[in-house]
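User: My instructor asked us to take a sequence, write out its structure as tokens, and then describe one feature of it. I'm not sure where to start. Here is the sequence I was given:
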Amino acid sequence: MTALVACDLNDQQRELVRLIVVDGKPPEDAAKLAGYHPKSVYRTLRLPAVAAAISESIQLDLAAVGAPLAYRVAKSLLQDSSVSARVRADLSIKVLDRAGHIAPTRKTMSSQQKSLSEMSRDELADFIASNQAEIDKIEAELAFRAKDVSYLG
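Assistant: Let's start with the prediction itself. The structure tokens for your sequence are:
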């Protein structure tokens, strides 16, 4: 755990965070080892500084330990010919996806790849015209759910 994570914590809270995140102890066990009463640990875990430290510690541990380990496991499975071809193919797709190599979609229209704010007036008109049935369906559903709040005094 870095000093950045634990800067707002006292020693007892720091130890509690370490026991939960690094050692993987259940909160009640971590509480006993850190010197807390087991029933008071959940109140401590809800403190903003403690909750933030746990969250940040998990993120750091995932980046420093979990992700490299998961990558090594995935790589070894991909290279192991005794692993079924289907498992290796599925794992390959997932590894490529996590690496940012996203499979192309069927939608190839340029106006659908742009956000509405980037479209020209003509592109917006074409978009509305091509999606009018969907727009009408959604508007009808919203109108059906609307409640009359007018006062008839």
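For the description part of your assignment, you could build on this observation: The chain is about 65% helix and 0% strand. Try explaining in your own words what that tells you about the chain.
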